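Section: Multi-chain targets

For targets with more than one molecule, the full set of components is provided together so that the structure can be written out for the assembly as a whole rather than chain by chain. Components appear in the order listed by the source. The example entry contains two components.
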Amino acid sequence: MGMDATAPEDVKTPRTERGRKTMRKLLDAAAREFGDHGFHEASISSITRRAGVALGTFYTYFDSKDAIFRALVADMSEAVKVAAREAIEPDMDALTIERAALEAFLRFAAHNKEVYRIIDEAEFVDPLSYRTHYETIAERIAGRLASGGEEGAMRAGLGEVEAWALMGMNVFLGLRYAIWADEADPGPDEVARLANRLLQQGIGPARD
Amino acid sequence: MGMDATAPEDVKTPRTERGRKTMRKLLDAAAREFGDHGFHEASISSITRRAGVALGTFYTYFDSKDAIFRALVADMSEAVKVAAREAIEPDMDALTIERAALEAFLRFAAHNKEVYRIIDEAEFVDPLSYRTHYETIAERIAGRLASGGEEGAMRAGLGEVEAWALMGMNVFLGLRYAIWADEADPGPDEVARLANRLLQQGIGPARD
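Its structure, encoded as tokens over all components, is:
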């Protein structure tokens, strides 16, 4: 996780290791607080209590509840990216990368269920963060599809439409199989296998 | 559109044609009010003003702001279903049906942009309506996939995973190309064509 260079302007980047740890505690506490109560009911004092830091310490890092919410959305975008990236091995072809990235995302979402509520609430609390979150992911997927076409592991000419289609698949499979998971459901590996089969060959009649 | 037999209990079904028209006016006004201001800022008096009916008339049909919001989500679910269904011709095969349904949905969303904001806000205002909306659509898609497998226009064995994948594709293509549309974007027919090609043959390398 961890803030990256795109941190919003109303967030102060800590200069020391101790500062980074305190900011991490505040972001993790904010994820629980916003996840449990939503933006409007959440309070800065509850966040600092959950983080085990003094109320005044909050303002060393963030200007407002809006600021930490915005930072948290950026932080969660980064966490989703890292979870997918860590699942990718150097020798995977482009289609296998999509399968591994989806399986990793499903596992990440199952262990970080508040991520859906917080990103989804950004549509209302901070529309620009919401849109940036999805546009950034779509661009990353479009880049992978372009590489896949170049290396011959995918057909050539895939672009933005296919990237948004793929992102939508992944988001809704996460909603159903990570957030609204049921005991009888297939596991992340099986969901990713079936979704990847759709990507590999579509859902048209068998052609062999 | 129009309320169907699944109207929530706190909504009174009108018995006369005039009553049905008044209820329709209230629902259309509520769509604009919730779409413009969101649930929390919206007021019953603004809804009746937009609808051109007396404040007291509201309570002939709905118990509360929550009740009309819930009725509106059900009404929009129904409208999405009808828009897709009207695009389907009797002689279409199962894959062509998916293409026509997506194109119709993209056109519907472009002309009813508030539908995204209202359905998405239901996640926070009325979580059960939100979940029911998507579960109902997924079941309908799963039914179409099963028919497609039976008639040989799709491969056999498609199920819930593919239904949620397809729904996610459609929702995110609508978000990108209907709600966040840009002048330079491909039109609904081209977006539906590319998405349908993904469904027909996947994104794997050409196999011919």
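Chain B touches chain A through 49 residues (CB under 8 Å).
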